[in-house]
Fold these 3 entries.
Entry 1:
Amino acid sequence: MTSPSSTSIAAMAGILGAGWASGGIAALSLVTIPALLTSSLPGPVLARQWASVYNKGKALMPVVAGLSLVAFGFASYQSRQYGNRWKQYASAAGLTIAIVPFTLGLMSGVNGQLMSQAAGAVGAADATTAHDTLELLKKWSTLNLTRSLWPLLGAAIGLWTLVGQ
């Protein structure tokens, strides 16, 4: 029985990290936000709950994506003599880390609005604020689910490249 090469191990680590990040990100839109949307809590309280979940994800997911970037980058570097395989691993790396610019570029407005609401006083909540918060959470959920596709695509390309060796 032969041992897997360091390139294969790196590719597997990148695939695992990218897939895990994608699933964790998607779970927020598919599980957490729908649960928040069923609540009758005031807008600022909902926004604080969202902010708590968001801040935990913000601390973890870029690190996981960064580790996948390093793993795919190593696999890409090691594969440079094998035709286009290095480009495929490089693409997987880029797609996985794309959650960072996607968040900063396309989600910062919604994130900022929700963070502002989270900082609001609980007693100041009214029906309009609660409705606004729910609408922002729905918009955030859609953007977040879209964001989860980047590392999923990275994992898929990494797996396709690894299996195709």
Entry 2:
Amino acid sequence: MFTPKDFLVFTQWGGIGTLALALLTGLAFALKWGIR
């Protein structure tokens, strides 16, 4: 089972991953990359 500490670490990394993905998406639109 998950301990509260494990859950906290998981959510922290999940938030970092989400921010990184959003930043990459914003950068892609800014540079007008074509995703095909």
Entry 3:
Amino acid sequence: MIMERKFQPVIIFSFSRRECEHHAMSMSKLDFNTDEEKDNIEQVFSSAILCLSEEDRGLPAIELMLPLLKRGIAVHHSGLLPLIKELVELLFQEGLVKALFATETFAMGLNMPAKTVVFTSVKKWDGDTNRYIASGEYIQMSGRAGRRGKDIRGICVIMIDEKMEMSVIKDMVLGKPAPLVSTFRLSYYTILNLMSRVEGQFTAEHVIRNSFHQFQYEKALPEVVQKITSLENEATLLDSSGETDLAEYHKLGLDISELEKKIMSEMIRPERALLYLVPGRLVKVRDGSTDWGWGVVVNVVKKPPQSGTLPPALSASRGNNYIVDTLLHCSSSSNENGSRSKPLPPRPGEKGEMHVVPVPLPLLSGLSSVRINIPPDLRPPEARQNILFAVQELGKRYPQGLPKLDPIKDMGLQEPELVELVHKLDDLEQKLCSHPLHKSDQSEQQLSWYQRKAELNHEIQMLKSKMRDSQLQKFRDELRNRSRVLKMLGHIDADGVLQLKGRAACLIDTGDELLITELMFNGTFNDLDHHQVASLASCFIPCEKSSEQIRLRSELSTPMMQLQEAARKIAEV
């Protein structure tokens, strides 16, 4: 379609090298170039590879690229030879490449605009999670669409292969780019190279002091001081009378809450709880600071919920085996415009409505001894609202809280540790009830003031600690610790002078410099031929995940064991 409508040249962004090559090869039967353009490409290609040896010209990475280039198709990613990347960039600039499959690195630092940009996916692996691309990343890549002086507008195509929330798309397309924050850190490679310089001004501390990281820290200090002053003023305005009693009462509440969590974690173990999680049972749901209140059990299933059905606050635990389908009081906006969006708790003062929400078993914070009848068909809104009215009526009937299942009397649990926890909880609850503030009309207001003041004081102490703990001092401590490691491994002597081992590590900028140097100096590479050296060296190059099962050859088992032993030695230093 893009070629038919003359929307080329096009850059197709994929977030893995394997995908780039796969997509390009799947189009290898298409041809976008004229005979004249093919001749030009072949001439440029032949001239470019003349600088390579005859043996290197026969590499698959070289030979397989020419047929694609002649058809107007190319690939660009970090795994290509530098010569091939430069050649692809040159041909793309000259308009001889009509469809370029590239990773996001092509959008960074290269002035290579196109008429159209296509995203093959909206998710990428960032080393930790498979997440949606950020707004800044989208802006950087989609900004390649539209050539100055040639195109009236640029065209951006997003291929979405799964259901997305409208808010996610808006944040990606219209959101603000992430702020520029320095992630400067001291590596062994950096320290060794700084030590190898003879110029006095290039000390590690000089580099740290003049880094963008230190600049950002010092720039933020006035704002931190202003915030501390504001928090101290707010804390001064809060009533501080009777703080001793309030502190005691507040601690009792925290201790009770902690014991309840421990007891509940024992009660909701599947072999104990499933017998009581029957339809109609009232259960309390809490996730961190989000209290969903009391809900009604509908069903229990041993399978994870479908992607996209959990509320944001509950989604982190979706991997649990047992899911309790629970009628929860949700915001009316959870099901607006007929589209099933993730449910949210009702806002203060909002009427809300009941919805069946899949809740991971660990997020149950209370099991009530109360059960209510639920209709067999919960699809009609009236049926769900009647249950909401019933739950609210129970709340009025039990103003001190719904009665809960007793783990000993009701569930018959007799483990000594659990029985001891229950007795401790009973003692603390008696102390709480006998406390002077428990029956005071103003206890709730006083307690909220105390809690707020405690939060303010904690935040003030954290900010003051941040001011005292200079970033420069942090780096000094890290430099001292890393230098100690380098001394123990023999890279520098007791006076901090670089040794032969350290000078070798200075030259290794691909892979782990400490581990590779250790293997070089312990003779691991000495008895290996060049094929085996290449195999062992491949362990130091990060690559994408693959389902391919690799069998280790017998002749490589010893070098592999030596590599693991060297890594273990460094880790234990």
